[in-house]
Amino acid sequence: MQSIQEIFDDANDNNGLEVTIPEGWSQGRAAYGGLIGAVAASAMCKMVGDDAPPIRSFMGSFVAPVAPGHCQIIPKLVRSGKNVTHMAADVRSGGQTSFQSIALFGSSRDTKCVEPCFPFNPEPRESVPPLIANSMMPPFLTNFDCHWTGGGIPLTGNKDRRLGLWVRHGSDVSDYPVEKIISICDFPPPIMMSHYTSPVRVSSLSWSLEFLLPPCDVDTDWFYLDFNLDAAANGYSQQSGYIFTEDGRLCALSRQCMVYFE
User: What is the mean pLDDT of the segment spanning 83-99?
Assistant: First the structure.
């Protein structure tokens, strides 16, 4: 099966404008959302160029399922100001727009700082066994190494509101720092699934990321993901997450609105 590094390499060879998503990167009827967001961001990064300021935020809307297969990415410069550049990108699958995204690239400024104060106290990776994917799990999981440290396990009926994971890519994506982080941030499942004991349909509607560190300054392979279920009702759930480097630096914040069907 094609690794995520090979997928990014192929997209890079096509100037970020085309990519083929293999079947092994599916989750149900759609391709893994973190990968779709990453290829959209890749196209925007290519358009702004290597001299652009760091990416500061990324927002995506899952308009329709992106089926494995050929995808077209259409980036667009929305506005380039003195300090901030606004970009947009659509991912087209099966002849329709299936994912829309916006990214903001911003220069650093000389200002006062407030350090993040989110606690970093995960269980050591070695204290829990690695997650072994099986036929009941989404196929894309085999492309990652994961140690599930607790909470939020789907279909256990435990009604958890939190989950913790150590995750890294199964291949070397150090040449793609933005894509590396974006594609790891969507790894956690909807925490609402832990409230059920029988299968439910789930899907992301919207997703936003904010980068506290420039991705090019993040050299860790392992990330610790600490996610929380904020609320859920009427078939819609909201969850937020903190993405830490292996040495405890908070590098990104995630927020998603998801739908679930009983």
Answer: 95
pLDDT tens digits, residue range 30-44? 899 999 999 999 999
pLDDT tens profile 203-213: 999 999 999 99
Q: Give the 3-state secondary structure of the chain.
A: CCCHHHHHHHHHHCCCCEEEECHHHEECCEECHHHHHHHHHHHHHHHHCCCCCCEEEEEEEECCCCCCEEEEEEEEEEEECCCEEEEEEEEEECCEEEEEEEEEEECCCCCCCCCCCCCCCCCCHHHCCECCCCCCCCHHHHHEEEEEEECCCCCCCCCCCEEEEEEEECCCCCCCHHHHHHHHHCCCCCHHHHHCCCCCEEEEEEEEEEECCCHHHCCCCCEEEEEEEEEEECCEEEEEEEEEECCCCEEEEEEEEEEEEC
Whole-structure pTM value:
0.94
